[in-house]
């Protein structure tokens, strides 16, 4: 299911990241060694828009039990029909979930890599970030308002713009990268993945890490 044939030249640094990055370079939260955690996958989908390279994101419905209202990549838990969690299961799950959540046509997506599995302690998910190229873009939008509030794309140029970058500070003391784009605050796991991809792909620009956005206990 993975192919690097015919990718645009600007994606080559991302391919290199997928081939070389180590789990500890992406997050300090790694899957439990005892195998615990719910296997899941997200689709990190790169497309080409009017302003150049862009990423597909969605905003989760405010009524959801976990990560309510947060911008995120399309994705979710593996189903049995997705197959082996250690094999192609995460690839199938990422495409299936993206189709279910955004109406994305999977046939227009070329999967070209996957990042190491990471862990989200608050929800117990073991997540495989699956990398895709939106070779043939299709219409996307909210499929189920009970799950998704909106679907949108963000130009990579906006994500690298230092004016749009900040550090979130949770009352617990946890700090993490954030992006203020498309009338949204992208933070948490999703922002962490974007931050590390920009960094290791060589796209990151210097930004003010002292610029803070406080979160509340519900976050």
From TrEMBL:
Keywords for this protein: Hydrolase, Magnesium, Manganese, Metal-binding
**GO terms for molecular function, please?**
8-oxo-7,8-dihydrodeoxyguanosine triphosphate pyrophosphatase activity
In terms of PANTHER family, this protein maps to:
MITOCHONDRIAL COENZYME A DIPHOSPHATASE NUDT8 (PTHR12992:SF11), NUDIX HYDROLASE (PTHR12992)
Q: Provide the Nudix hydrolase domain boundaries.
A: 36-181
Protein source organism: Streptomyces carpinensis
Name listed for the protein in its UniProt record: CoA pyrophosphatase
Q: What's its EC?
A: 3.6.1.55
Q: Does the keyword Cytoplasm apply?
A: no
Q: Where is this region: Disordered?
A: 66-90
Q: Which domain of life is it from?
A: Bacteria
């Amino acid at each position: 299911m993975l192919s690097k044939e015919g990718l645009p030249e600007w994606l080559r640094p991302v391919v290199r990241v997928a081939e070389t990055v180590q789990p500890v370079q992406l997050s300090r939260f790694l899957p439990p060694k005892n195998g615990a955690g719910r296997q899941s996958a997200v689709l990190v989908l790169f497309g080409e828009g009017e302003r150049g390279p862009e990423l597909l994101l969605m905003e989760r419905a405010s009524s959801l039990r976990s990560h309510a209202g947060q911008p995120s990549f399309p994705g979710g838990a593996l189903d049995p029909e997705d197959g082996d969690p250690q094999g192609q299961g995460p690839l199938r799950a990422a495409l299936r979930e993206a189709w279910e959540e955004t109406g994305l046509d999977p046939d227009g997506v070329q999967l070209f890599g996957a990042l190491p599995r990471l862990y989200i302690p608050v929800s117990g998910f073991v997540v495989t970030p699956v990398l895709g190229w939106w070779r043939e873009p299709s219409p996307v939008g909210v499929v189920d308002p009970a799950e998704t509030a909106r679907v949108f794309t963000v130009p990579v140029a906006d994500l690298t713009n230092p004016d749009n970058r900040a550090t979130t500070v949770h009352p617990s003391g946890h700090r993490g990268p954030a992006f203020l784009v498309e009338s949204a605050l992208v933070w948490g796991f999703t922002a962490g993945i974007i931050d590390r991809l920009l960094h290791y792909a060589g796209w990151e620009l210097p930004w003010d890490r002292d610029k803070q956005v406080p979160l509340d206990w519900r976050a």
